[in-house]
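By way of example, what follows is a protein record of this kind.
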Amino acid sequence: MLDAVTRRRSQPKVTDDSPSHEELLPLVEAAAGVADHGSLRPWRLIELRGEARQRLGAAFVEASGLSAEDGAKLAGKPLRAPLLIAIVVSRRPSFKVAEWEQDAAASGVAHTLGLLLDEAGWGVMWRTGPLTRSQPVRAMHELDDNEELLGWLYVGGLTDDAKKGSKKTVQAGEYLTRL
């Protein structure tokens, strides 16, 4: 696990290959094992492929207020990967589990799924942005009132020049302190 986490890199450029729905299922099942106080499973994932990515691009343009012509670059952003996996926190009523804990569980699933996809040989990048929680993007994802979009995992095949090698390390002592 240490190797997988240390080796992980965001892959902003990917090929048109992507895992199938059936290939995703065991990875999602494994990612579902993250810490989840109360076992609420306060999350869900949405696959966006093909035309759904174009609808997301249109929602980006609508949310931005740009014209279709001026928003063409923005509309193309969801086309940067053949598969987008929307990460949705689905908050559950609970007197015991605060909303922030439910958000943390959903984030944990997303991060773990990204690690599992990376380990399986796919290029992955978690993307967000100012339009993530806009009304047109919410509507496009058909979110319920108790749900918020946390972003998307952009998933595709690794390019020949995929990021490899070392990345900037953290000086752990600066972040791990004692009382």
The helical segments are 2-7, 21-31, 51-64, 72-76, 99-119, 135-140.
